[in-house]
Write a structure and sequence with these properties.
This protein is of the alpha+beta class and 291 residues long. The protein has helices spanning 2-60, 86-92, 147-163, 228-249; strands spanning 100-101, 110-120, 126-137, 169-175, 182-192, 195-206, 209-220. Helix 2 runs antiparallel to helix 4.
Length: 291
């Protein structure tokens, strides 16, 4: 009897153990699935977070900006032969009949005009005058710099060239007030076979445009030399008008008396003993520049 009870107890213990094993065995896949779901969900969330975070970071990072320069103030040039009033041309080149327009492959950036005047008094000699106005506009460029800075460099070079003419005597240079952003007047005497010439070169920078006025005169065939102070004053007058014409061509108001549509004074032919050409290629009594 006792043996039977012992065997029954052993069977019940085995059955209980088997049930516990089955329950545990059944529970393991559930736990694994749960753990697997939990792990996948976490990985997905983290991946999403990484993706979203990367997108936000990418979106928030500013794009590298390309180098920029300030746009040039002036976009156009006036017609060079019309920048001076008829009255001013009468004062500077009284015998002029037509202005000679300089050649340019781009009139929006470069222009020039020259006038010649010969007042022939026969045996008493002649008074010769020559006038040239040139305009040069600089555009802003990312690789070279702002237009006004480029114009400033050219303005300084022009003034220095005027002070460095070979053979020039009594050279004087002085700043000119009230014209453009900066201006310089250079004067000198130059002896040539035609006679003794008085040369006036006045240069101004207005924003990104450089205006250069070359004006010279001589008494030929025994006529007296022109007065240097008078020539200087007239050259500065022409410079002021030309600078105002640049502003007006770009929509800004010029000074009172500044030409707008005033026809240019036509000019006469140069005397047979024509002066040498200056650096821009226009006729002038200026000698070659120093190298």
């Amino acid at each position: 009897m006792r043996d039977q009870l012992d065997r029954r107890d052993q069977r019940e213990q085995r059955v209980k153990g088997l049930r516990r094993a089955l329950v545990c065995a059944a529970a393991v896949p559930v736990m694994l699935v749960a753990a697997g779901c939990s792990s996948d969900s976490g990985s997905g969330d983290k991946a999403a977070e990484r993706k979203d975070g990367g997108a936000k970071s990418s979106a928030s990072s500013p794009a590298s900006a390309s180098p920029t320069v300030q746009a040039a103030a002036y976009k156009a040039l006036p017609e060079a032969c019309k920048v001076l009033s008829e009255k001013t041309l009468d004062d500077l080149v009284p015998k002029a009949k037509s202005g000679k327009k300089g050649s340019s492959d781009d009139t929006s950036t470069r222009g020039s005009c020259s006038w010649s005047s010969l007042d022939n008094n026969g045996v008493k000699g002649s008074q010769f005058r020559w006038l040239n106005v040139s305009l040069l506009r600089f555009e802003s460029d990312a690789s070279r710099g702002a237009g006004d800075k480029l114009a400033q460099e050219y303005y300084r070079a022009q003034a220095q060239d005027a002070r460095s003419v070979t053979g020039a005597k009594n050279t004087k240079s002085q700043p000119v007030q009230g014209v453009g952003d900066e201006a310089t007047a250079v004067r000198y005497d130059l002896k040539k076979k035609e006679g003794s010439f008085k040369q006036e070169t006045v240069v101004a920078r207005t924003e990104n445009v450089v205006v250069t006025v070359d004006y010279n005169g001589a008494g030929l065939a025994g006529e007296k030399k022109p007065d240097g102070d008078t020539l200087n004053k007239l050259a500065q007058k022409a410079l002021k008008e030309a600078v105002a014409a640049v502003a007006k061509a770009n929509g800004a108001g010029g000074d009172a008396g500044t030409p707008s549509d005033a026809p240019s004074k036509p000019a006469s032919k140069s005397p047979s003993a024509s002066p040498s050409k200056n650096a821009s290629g226009s006729p002038s009594p200026s000698a070659s520049k120093k190298s």
